[in-house]
Amino acid sequence: xxxxxxxxxxxxxxxxxxxxxxxxxxxxxxxxxxxxxxxxxxxxxxxxxxxxxxxxxxxxxxxxxxxxxxxxxxxxxxxxxxxxxxxxxxxxxxxxxxxxxxxxxxxxxxxx
Amino acid sequence: xxxxxxxxxxxxxxxxxxxxxxxxxxxxxxxxxxxxxxxxxxxxxxxxxxxxxxxxxxxxxxxxxxxxxxxxxxxxxxxxxxxxxxxxxxxxxxxxxxxxxxxxxxxxxxxxx
Lengths: 112, 113
Known about the structure:
By secondary structure, chain A is mainly beta. Chain A has no helices and eleven strands. Chain B is an all-beta fold. Classes of the chains: A mainly beta, B mainly beta. The A-B interface holds A 4, 31, 33, 40-45, 48, 55-56, 58, 91, 93, 98-106, 108 and B 4, 8, 34, 41-46, 49, 89, 91, 93, 97-106.
């Protein structure tokens, strides 16, 4: 297993377009998280899955954001009608428990 | 609200010296704190976890302390090397959640050869 994989690594999109990111966690990890990070800041929690169930969603996630984890394996994060304020690094992490997350390398989104 | 604060100013030290980074928390009492390393353009990498009943934890050249009276954790890198240059993040869970990890903004460390 090569760790948490995220695709694409970079995405440039025009304002108003929809984008989707994919995260493949470590196979035996049942917990999966999405975070967002802007320059000079620490990652901010977006949402959490335990297996296929989305157990929490941050208030940071507007109705334009949706995340899924079908069958408790990979996860997707979709942003509809992107805005310039959505430009950030989107990080996915997975874990077996709450002690020590394994993060992917992230998807850097630029909305122009 | 629960906050984790780290010094936003970069720490610039000479190779071989000990780097000490600070993490302060306010308005709550975390059961444990975690430290991560982040390189530019990469995701954070987990380094160490320390529980509130542990005063100190070590791993190779890394040492973490947890002072519940001062509401502070210190992260030390002894015999620092240029390869240690990175941003170091402190994190803990919110009191109302066992999975919503909150991060400080990180401190950038630069080790000069």
